[in-house]
């Protein structure tokens, strides 16, 4: 009886010990805070020069904005630019689809991209007007929250991720905060979220 109890205890311990086998430590995560979607031809300085992807007008450039925890001290973004670490960094990948661009992104950063803190997705008007569903990735990925805000930029979306906000250290956080002021300014258009787009697609 004692031998059976010992075996059961060992089996139970083995099950419990394997519970975190796929755990990713927080310092190994790359926290995405914002995303910009452009056509590759519109951001030639950010994509691989001479590559077939850059030559194809139908291909996309995906720029992820990551938080740099070491740069989130007491300095403002303007002070960080002059010296010290910036509170964020941008990485651009490319692909024939958002899924392909995401795979390309995985080999450009040493940290595992983590989208649960994503605030805004910005797509250029040109990218949004293509026949491809540029938001399909964000609608299907189970990491994506339904309250992620979707914005359309007249020009290049990546340029929006490089603005210098006065009251925030990270452009994506500044954009998210500005859109929260819609109730205080009637000139602002109510924000659209991933969940809203998903519900509208289900109705069509």
From TrEMBL:
Q: Name one GO biological process term.
A: spore germination
Domain of life (superkingdom): Bacteria
Parts forming coiled coils = none
**Spore germination protein N-terminal domain location, by residue?**
22-202
Tell me what this protein is called.
Ger(X)C family germination protein
GO CC, alphabetical: membrane
Pfam families reported in the protein's UniProt record: Spore_GerAC_N (PF25198)
